[in-house]
Amino acid sequence: MTSESQEVQRLKQEVKELKEKLAQSEELIKDISAPIIPSIIPETILIPITGRLSPERFEMIISKILDFSYGGDINTIIVDFSAISEKEIGEIDIFGTYIHNMANAIGLMGIETLFVGFTPALTQVMINSGVRELQGIKTFLTFRTALQYLMREKDMEFQKANQ
């Protein structure tokens, strides 16, 4: 084998290894981009959304939620946008449409979606996006108020440990 063909083989191997590392990095980003956190309320999970939102990322988050929820004992998902500012949604002209699509996709699986943490800036973006279907989504100012709502719905209450 000539030194030139050896170099080509070495470069091919290096490209293959870099592609594998890239795939692993993309999988890691997918895993941490929308962590799924069990709630203190049974059959409920919390999805805190952070970082820049793009149409691709929204689709990935929806896919991840659907995959996780399928076959699980989940009947309520709380999606928390409190860490999202206007600059993270600057590229999304149709933010409200993605919220609507997320609620519909999850709802088709028989799972209730509660959205929390919409700031005034996020609210304005959704209104400006022109989505008319937003009236049907359940929103709460904070995670705490969503939990209080769920506890009333499930006829649950907090008790202090020493009672």
Walk me through this protein's architecture:
The protein is α/β, with parallel strands linked by helices and 163 residues long. The protein folds into 2 domains: 1-33; 34-153, STAS domain (Transcription Regulator spoIIAA, 2-Layer Sandwich). 48% of the residues lie in helices and 12% in strands. It contains 5 helices and 5 strands. A 5-stranded mixed beta sheet has the order 1-2-3-4-5. The radius of gyration is 21 Å and the shape is elongated. It starts with a helix and ends in a 10-residue tail after the last helix. The model has no long low-confidence stretch (mean pLDDT 84).
Notable characteristics:
163 residues, alpha/beta, Transcription Regulator spoIIAA, 2 domains, 5-stranded mixed sheet, 12% strand
Structure in a nutshell:
This protein has 163 residues and is an alpha/beta fold. The protein has helices spanning 3-33, 55-69, 95-107, 120-128, 143-153; strands at 37-38, 44-48, 76-80, 112-116, 138-140.
Q: Give, in spatial order, the strands making up the sheet with the most strands.
A: 1-2-3-4-5
* Unreliable sequence segments: none
| Order of H and E elements | HEEHEHEHEH
* CATH homologous superfamily title of the largest domain: STAS domain
- According to DSSP, the number of beta strands is 5
Principal-axis shape equals elongated
Structural class: alpha/beta
Kindly provide the name of the CATH class of the largest domain: Alpha Beta
Count of all domains: 2
Name of the CATH architecture of the largest domain: 2-Layer Sandwich
Helix share bin: 40-55%
Domain STAS: 42-150
Coiled coil: 1-31
Keywords: Coiled coil
Protein name: STAS domain-containing protein
